[in-house]
Structure formats: C-alpha cells, structure tokens
Amino acid sequence: MVFEMTVENAPQEGRAVGEADPVDIHVGGRARTRRILLGKSQEAVSTQLGISFQQLQKYENGVNRISASRLYDLAHILRVPISFFFDEMPETARPFVEFGKSGKPAKKGEPLETGSVDGFSDRLTLDLIREFRRIGSAKQRDCILDLIRVMADARPAGDPGEPIPDRPRRGRPRGSKNGVKSLRKIA
User: What pTM does this model have?
Assistant: First the structure.
C-alpha cells in the first residue's frame, strides 16, 4: 500500500511531520492537570484505562493523540465532561480560518505561544490547589488565603520583584514533624 499525501492528510501548516499537534498538547495538558488535582497517579489512571503509564505520559504530553473512546473513558475516570479537555483552548491552537472568494484562506493562524496549560505549569501549584480544596473549614481556608496574600506581598531585602524560582524539596522543613508544620492555632 502506497501512502499519498493529499490536502486532507497533510500536516497543519507550520508544523513538521511528527510534531505534536497543539490541540493534542492542550487536551493532554488538561488531562494531566485534572489527574493531579484529583491526587491520582499516572499508574492508577493508566491501570483504569487499561494502558501503560508510559502511554498515559504520551497522552499527557500531546505526543500521542487520544482516541474518542479513550477520551470518553478518561473523562469518566477524571469525573469531568468531555468538553473539559477543550475548555480554555487558545484560538492559536487551532484557529478557525476564514476563506475568501478565491477559496484560499483570508488570513493565517498565529503561531502558538509557549506557556502552560491554564497557568498551572508546575506540580507545586497543582499540589497546593488540591490540598487547599481538601480543607473542610471555610475559616481555615480564609486564613490560609490571607497568609498567602501577605507572603506574596512581602519581598525579602534586595529582591527586585522577580518570582522566586522553584527549589527542589529536601527533607522536612525545620520545626516540623513528618514534613508538616503545626497550624493548630488556626483550627
């Protein structure tokens, strides 16, 4: 069987053959974000889907496209509607092209901006959100939110205002037991 490249099966303009599609990257990123917010491991979700965790990694990175039936199963496992995976997709991921009278596109889509899906690019942010949602007391959540706002406004001496880069965690924080500082006064 000979494969013939036609207009219908050609790669999207501006994308090399084998390069991940921006829509697949977005859908995979949304799946990863939701999985982490639920506190589920790749291994747990991949087992429920009946695939290897490496395959799930490929889906989450947009390297492999998720089929419709697999997306349906994934939505069920992650307890979201299928539309969740396409929410907040930037127009530049798959621009809708208007065609002129000549039958040619009237304007070209802009290239994708590099950045994170939904602004949740790092694991620390997702962990923070997941743990915050687990706090049952509204009073405790308000106190934590106030603390974060005060800390975000405070700058160490000599800090030019740049965000502090993420640092890998090493051991337990000082003055803590089992890696968690006591917040009993808030309760």
Answer: 0.52
